[in-house]
């Protein structure tokens, strides 16, 4: 019985040693990866700040002003003026588009006097899709 | 097998022989003790040996570790927990909409180890070719006089760095550098200030602010705990750009030496735009003037809006009138003595161009016509003590608390004694000097219904707290008078359709350094608020030595110089600020004035 216990304990020690060895290397690999990622994040942050600075530089008012002057014939941009504000009821709304009549319905015809009188006092022309 | 102490056979034999059986017992006892002792000794010595081995191992381990530490290269321990890194960058500065005004960029500094240099002479010549401001001979001397370290350039552009790489001398080395970048160039230069390097090392350098917000807020900008959060100013980039553009154009048209403009939100005290011309590029900040005789105002670094302490002229008249109304001494229709010239002791107080608006003038007309004599009489009613107390409450006796390093230095010039003649001259803006920023804050108090707010350059969250200096009714009356100045007074050019501009002109002669005043040099100020019925913004425009030569004879008064510039500024800026012009409904149409 005791020898079995010894063997089991010995195997357990071996197994734990192997596990600890593997964990050690896995941790070191993870730390290396974290360091790499942090370096990458720092690089990307730097690139981001450079791009932000570049964006601000390209959008500086001086340059935009020059560009609108250069491209005036295409864009026609002018500084905003008080006259561009108007009351909402002074805005010309687009005229609603009336669709073209493509499928005229024939409403002219003979009214069956007897049937019309039976259905209703007013003569109603038959609609082609009545009941829908 | 345990031996009995008294084995029966031996005892019987001994008894037969007549010997004592006790001897046998003792002998056996002694034998047993001996065996026991040997066993114990053996166990103890083996334990000692084990202990010795354990100690030996421990000493060996420590020894090996010590040897390893002594022989290996030291490495700094690294915190492996994520998120523990410190952002050691200077915080960005952004405008009220979050657009970047100042940011950081990584570049390189160039230094040299002359002892590692292969060809110091050739290298110096090539460096001088790349950087025209370096002197080849001086550089060569520094490379060859035996020193082992030389700074060459603090900041390099990537192109310059490539060119230096191409020289290929092993003695030339690069160190990383964080530099400050102002992407908008000269925009808001006087607000931002500038930067320089503090303590410098090969691997990094301290970036420190040298002027403006950069220096005043240096601790906040360098605080590592807040490095991620940019500093948000109250400045609006597009409004600032427009104000600077119009101011520069106005200075050109009016042949002025310089000028300043301040746009202030009257409800919050925030400065939305602040410009001073001539201006500079904070990326390449010019050095301050060395010439002793030069006026401070000649340097582009001089911030006229804050540092320019001038006599502000007739713009002060509204304060005397407002105070007199607050004290119940006059109302807008009270007739006051305005018979010019007024003789006070040995002084003679005249009107502009020797006119006479008298004998009597209503208080409203005193402001509309800008009568010096009328204002003088009102000021005499108030008296020196009350006048001083009121101007003090309007912030005219202290430097402004603006977040600029220049602000605390710009102290208003207050006469030491305050006799009645000073009361009279101060009432129409002579004798004491203050900056346009002081004027903006005081006009904002009239505009917002009588509450004095400290002007600020930082974006304000929530409502601003101020001190009440005037009652609402008096402030409203004062605004009506200022509106009259524009509709039928000295500032008729300020009328901008839809924005009900109200304001007051001020023309002050420039003082000579030697004492007295120049005859033909003036500082023209226009202090405006819009829209007059419920003001949102105060605009101050100051021009230094302007002359309007577009008409004949040439004009030097504010009404012909600062006022048209201010009007153009309001026309351009108000739509950007989202102010809708008020369109008076045209009579005879069926249009309803929709307030939506």
Give a short synopsis of this structure.
The complex is a heterodimer of chains A (132) and B (596). Chain A contains four helices and no strands.
Tell me what you see in this structure.
The complex is a heterodimer of chains A (132) and B (596). Chain A has 132 residues and is an all-alpha fold. Helix content of chain A is 59%, strand content 0%. Chain A is built from four helices and no strands. Chain A has helices at residues 2-58, 61-70, 72-75, 113-119. Chain A is elongated, with a radius of gyration of 43 Å. The model of chain A has no long low-confidence stretch (mean pLDDT 82). In chain B, 36% of the residues lie in helices and 19% in strands. In chain B, strands 1, 2, 3, 4 and 7 form a five-stranded mixed beta sheet that branches. A five-stranded antiparallel beta sheet of chain B has the order 9-8-20-19-18, with helices on both faces. In chain B, strand 19 (517-530) and strand 20 form a beta hairpin. In chain B, helix 3 (120-130) runs antiparallel to helix 4 (136-144), helix 3 (120-130) runs antiparallel to helix 5 and helix 12 packs across helix 14. The longest helix of chain B has 51 residues, at 21-71. The A-B interface holds A 31, 34-35, 38, 42, 46, 49-50, 52-57, 59-62, 65, 79-90 and B 78, 80, 82, 85, 99-100, 103-106, 181, 183-185, 187, 237-238, 241-242, 245, 496-499, 571-572, 574-576, 580-581, 583, 591-594, 596.
């Amino acid at each position: 019985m005791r020898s079995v216990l010894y063997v089991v304990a010995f195997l357990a020690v071996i197994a734990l040693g192997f596990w600890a060895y593997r964990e050690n290397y896995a941790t070191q690999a993870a730390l290396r990866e974290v360091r790499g990622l942090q370096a990458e994040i720092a690089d990307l942050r730097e690139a981001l700040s450079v791009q932000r600075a570049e964006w601000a530089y390209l959008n500086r008012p001086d340059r935009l002003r020059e560009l609108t002057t250069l491209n005036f014939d295409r864009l026609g941009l002018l500084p905003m003026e008080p006259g561009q504000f108007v009351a909402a009821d002074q805005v010309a709304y687009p005229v609603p588009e009336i669709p073209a009549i493509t499928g005229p319905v024939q409403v002219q015809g003979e009214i069956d006097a007897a049937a019309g009188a039976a259905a209703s006092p007013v003569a109603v022309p038959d609609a082609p899709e009545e009941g829908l | 097998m345990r031996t009995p102490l008294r084995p029966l056979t031996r005892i019987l034999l001994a008894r037969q022989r007549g010997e004592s059986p006790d001897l046998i017992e003792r002998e056996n006892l002694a034998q047993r003790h001996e065996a026991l002792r040997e066993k114990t000794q053996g166990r103890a010595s083996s334990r000692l040996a084990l202990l010795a081995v354990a100690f030996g191992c421990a000493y060996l381990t420590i020894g090996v570790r010590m040897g390893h530490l002594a022989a290996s290269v030291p490495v700094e321990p690294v915190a492996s927990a994520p998120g523990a890194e410190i952002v050691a960058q200077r915080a960005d500065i952004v405008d009220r909409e979050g657009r970047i005004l100042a940011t950081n960029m990584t570049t390189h500094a160039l230094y040299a180890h002359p002892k590692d240099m292969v060809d110091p002479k050739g290298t110096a010549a090539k460096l001088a070719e790349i950087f025209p401001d370096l002197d080849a001979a001086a550089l060569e001397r520094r490379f060859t006089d035996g020193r082992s370290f030389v700074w060459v350039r603090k900041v390099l552009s990537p192109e310059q760095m490539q060119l230096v790489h191409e020289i290929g001398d092993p003695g030339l080395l690069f160190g990383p550098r964080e530099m400050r970048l102002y992407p908008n160039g000269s925009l808001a230069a006087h607000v931002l200030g500038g930067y320089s390097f503090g303590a410098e090392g090969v691997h990094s350098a301290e970036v420190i602010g040298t002027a403006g917000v950069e220096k005043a807020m240096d601790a906040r900008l360098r605080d590592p705990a807040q490095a991620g959060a940019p500093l948000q100013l109250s400045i609006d980039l597009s409004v600032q750009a427009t104000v600077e553009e119009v101011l520069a154009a106005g200075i050109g048209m009016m042949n002025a030496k310089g000028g300043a403009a301040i746009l202030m939100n009257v409800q919050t005290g925030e400065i939305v735009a602040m410009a001073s011309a001539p201006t500079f590029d904070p990326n390449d900040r010019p050095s301050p003037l060395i010439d002793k005789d030069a006026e401070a105002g000649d340097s582009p670094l001089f911030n006229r809006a804050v540092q320019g302490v001038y006599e502000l002229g007739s713009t002060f008249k509204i304060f005397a009138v407002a105070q007199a109304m607050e004290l119940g001494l006059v109302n807008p229709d009270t007739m006051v003595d305005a018979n010019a010239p007024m003789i006070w002791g040995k002084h003679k107080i005249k009107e502009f161009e020797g006119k006479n608006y008298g004998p009597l003038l209503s208080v409203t007309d005193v402001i509309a016509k800008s009568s010096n004599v009328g204002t003088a009489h009102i000021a005499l009613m108030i008296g020196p003590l009350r006048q001083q107390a009121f101007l003090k409450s309007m912030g005219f006796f202290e430097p402004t608390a603006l977040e600029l390093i220049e602000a605390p230095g710009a102290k208003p010039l207050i006469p030491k004694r305050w006799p009645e003649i000073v009361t009279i001259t101060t009432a129409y803006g002579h004798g004491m000097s203050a900056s346009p920023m002081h004027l903006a804050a005081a006009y904002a108090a009239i505009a917002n219904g009588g509450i004095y707010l400290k002007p600020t350059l930082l974006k304000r969250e929530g409502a601003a707290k101020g001190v009440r200096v005037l009652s609402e009714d008096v402030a409203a009356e004062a605004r009506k008078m200022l509106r009259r100045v524009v509709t039928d007074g000295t500032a008729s050019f300020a009328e901008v359709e839809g924005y009900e501009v109200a304001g007051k002109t001020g023309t002050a002669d420039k003082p000579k350094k030697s004492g007295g005043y120049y005859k033909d040099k003036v500082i023209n100020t226009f202090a405006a608020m819009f829209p007059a019925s419920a003001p949102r913004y105060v605009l101050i425009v100051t021009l230094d030595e302007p002359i309007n030569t577009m008409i004949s004879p040439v004009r030097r008064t504010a009404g012909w110089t600062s006022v048209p510039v201010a009007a153009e500024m309001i026309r351009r800026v108000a739509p950007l600020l989202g102010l809708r012009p008020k369109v008076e409904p045209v009579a005879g149409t069926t249009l309803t004035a929709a307030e939506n």
